[in-house]
Every structure is written in C-alpha cells, then in structure tokens.
Design goal:
Radius of gyration: 20 Å
Distance between the termini: 58 Å
CATH architecture of the largest domain: 3-Layer(bba) Sandwich
Oligomer: single chain
Bound molecules: flavin-adenine dinucleotide
Organism: Rhodoplanes roseus
Number of strands: 17
Mean pLDDT: 86
Protein name: Digeranylgeranylglycerophospholipid reductase catalytic domain-containing protein
Strand content: 25-35%
InterPro entries: FAD/NAD-bd_sf, Geranylgeranyl_reductase, GGR_cat
CATH topology of the largest domain: FAD/NAD(P)-binding domain
CATH class of the largest domain: Alpha Beta
Length: about 325
C-alpha cells in the first residue's frame, strides 16, 4: 500500500491548485486522476483576472495563448450586444486542454493515472481502492467526484442537472469579441468564446428539468443557435453544418451541502461551487484549492462562504453588501 500525507483525487484546477500549495511548503502529496493529461474538459475556458492572481500567473508565465476578452451579452433576443459583465477587471480565454495540463505539471506533485472507485476509513487513515493510504483526502474529482459519491451520498439534486453541448475548433476567421446569448426561450445560455490561437469555443447549457418540461431537445437548441450565428455572419454555413458537438450532463450541487468529514475536504465542482447562472467554476475551484491546502498546513480553514462569486447572484450580493455598508452608522 502506498502511504502519503495527502491524496488529491482529481487534477483539474481545484486539485492542482491545492497540490501546488502543499508542494510549495514541502508537503507530501499525490494526485490521482483517471485521465491522462492533457485531457479534454468541456468548458468555454473563460477566466477572470482574479484567477490569474490567485494562481500567481504573471505576464509571460503562461506558455500557451491567452486572449483578453471583450465580452458582449445578448439579452433575450435583443439585436445588440451589451458590453457588460459582472466581473471586475479583465477577462481572458484559455483552452482547458492546455491550461489544466500546464497547471498540473507546474504543481510539482506526483500524478498517478488511476480511476478511483472506493474510499474507506481505517483508523486515522483514508484508504483509496486498497492501494493508497493517506491522512488527508481531498475530493477534487469535479461534478462526478468519487470521494463525494462515496462519503457524501445524498447530494445530487436532480433539479440542478445541466445539459451542455459544445465544440472547440480551429476557425481563424472568428471574430475577437466573446458573446453570451441569454435568449431563445432557453433556461440557460449560449456562448461564443474566441481563443488566442485561432480556435473558437461555441456551446450551450440549459437546465435539464426545463428541457424535460418544455419537451425540447438540447441538440435542437444548439442547431438553432448555430443557425443564428450563420444569419448574423459570425459563422459560415459549411462550418456550421460540419460541426460535431459533444456534450454531457453536468451537476450543479447546492452550495449549502456538506464539504468536510474528518480530514476529508471536497473542493471545486465536487463542493458545488460553480455558479448557477454563469457556470463560472474555475475561479471558485482555485480559491477552494488554496483554502483546503491552508487547512492542511494549519494556516486557515476551508470555508465555502468565503469563495468569490462572479455571477448575477454574486453581483447582487456584492451590491447589497456595499449598500449595507453605506447605511451603517460609523463606529
Ligand atoms: C460546458 C461547460 C462550460 C463551462 N465554462 C466555464 C467557463 O467558461 N469558465 C469557468 O470558470 N467555468 C466554466 N465551467 C465550469 C468549470 O469547467 C468547472 O467549474 C471547473 O472545471 C471545476 O474544476 P474542478 O477542478 O473542480 O473539476 P474538473 O475540472 O472537472 O476536474 C476534475 C478532475 O477529476 C478527475 N476525476 C473524475 N472522476 C475521477 C475518478 N473516479 N478517479 C480519478 N479522477 C477522477 C477528472 O478526470 C478531472 O480531471 C464550465 C462547465 C461546463 C460543463
């Protein structure tokens, strides 16, 4: 049996961030991921300036293209783009296939390709698949995290199942603006995100419950969205016809669920951190990875309520806090 102080299950942004901070402080950590990196991750690949700060990525550090984004929101069929977005500072696009592999390699942690199936407690140790033992176990396996499934079994509210379809492909004549479409009678949104190397990511996500109720099909919504892009001159018809989109169900867990057991912490999507409206999850994954590492290091506590929310709800929350502060009598 392989013994380490900390096992991180999942090498996405949450897991690699946690592993990196532990390695920086000289701690013993092993990352288990079922995928071999670089791996495909369905994601539009939008990140905020804060993500770069939290990850300590300075100008010139990142070896792959990263494009500053001019984000335009198209609301409910209005024919113009609003240059508005609820994030302070700049926004960027990256390709997850490059970003996640680079972060994981940079973490300095040993990575073993292993599909985690079982987790059990044995005295003060967690045992993973009867092959690995650790004192601290981090569940960073994303929306289908096996640690979450094994130890936090009652947390998958069906109403929050999201269905997504997307395609990332080389399209050098793509426009530079990033577009979000909140429309088409869809409880969800669609996006066009340009990437730095001439690629573009086109996708769409919707609540599964809504699709079931409305009797509509996610593929039909995606095709209708492509037709709109062709009509608007943002995509040529031959490319649209040849696109083979891929998709999967994605679970947005409630944020009030449990994220800790004795020496076991859930982080990132496994902890239900991606926002419901915008689906921003990379930033929360990174923040949670840092906080979980700090708890292991005895320097802090992993606290979900401290994670920054860049979403419409988060915007409202920040607005209310600011308004309350203004009306507070001076101490
Ligand atoms: C279509 C779509 C678009 C999105 N767009 C954006 C966006 O533009 N910006 C944004 O901020 N967020 C976006 N998100 C959300 C974002 O992708 C996630 O919030 C983010 O990836 C969470 O990071 P994570 O490290 O928690 O999990 P993941 O990135 O999902 O990493 C989990 C890792 O765990 C591994 N794993 C899973 N099961 C096992 C197992 N049994 N054994 C071992 N390893 C396992 C996986 O292989 C994976 O590498 C999007 C999500 C979707 C679905």
């Amino acid at each position: 049996m392989r013994e380490v102080e900390t096992i991180v299950v999942g090498g996405g942004p949450a897991g690699s961030t946690c592993a990196r901070r532990l390695r920086q402080l000289g701690r013993d950590v092993l990352v288990l991921d079922k995928a071999r990196f670089p791996r495909l991750k369905l994601c539009a690949g939008w990140i905020t300036e804060k993500v770069l700060r939290d990850l300590e990525i300075g100008p010139g550090d990142y070896p792959h293209p990263m494009l500053p984004l001019d984000i335009r929101s198209h609301l409910r069929g209005l024919p113009f783009g609003l240059s508005w977005f609820p994030t302070p500072g700049k926004n960027f696009s990256i390709r997850r296939v490059e970003f996640d592999a680079w972060l994981l390699a940079r973490s300095g942690a040993e990575v073993v390709q292993h599909d985690v199936r079982t987790v059990r407690r044995d005295g003060a140790r967690w045992i993973v698949d009867d092959a690995f033992a650790c004192r601290w176990l981090i569940g960073a396996g994303g929306t289908m995290c096996p640690v979450r499934r094994a130890l936090f079994p009652n947390q998958r509210p069906k109403s929050r199942q999201i269905v997504t379809l997307e395609k990332e492909f080389a399209y050098p004549s793509r426009e530079e603006a990033c577009r979000l479409y909140f429309k088409r009678g869809l409880v969800g949104y669609a996006w066009v995100v340009p990437k730095g190397d001439g690629h573009v990511n086109i996708g769409l996500g919707a609540k599964a419950k809504y699709l079931r109720k409305s009797g509509t099909n996610i593929h039909d919504h995606f095709r209708a969205f492509l037709d709109d892009l062709v009509r608007e001159g943002r995509l040529d018809a031959a490319t649209a016809d040849g696109l083979q989109e891929t998709g999967h169900p994605y679970y947005l867990f409630t944020r009030d669920g449990e994220v800790r057991l004795d020496h076991c912490l859930l982080i990132g999507d496994a902890a239900g951190l991606a926002t419901m409206d915008l689906g921003e999850g990379i930033g929360p994954a990174v923040e949670s990875g840092l906080m979980a590492a700090d708890e292991i290091l005895g320097r802090g506590t992993w606290d979900k309520s401290k994670v920054t929310l860049f979403s419409l709800a988060g915007l409202a929350q920040r607005f209310m806090r600011a308004a309350n502060r203004r009306h507070m009598p001076a101490a």
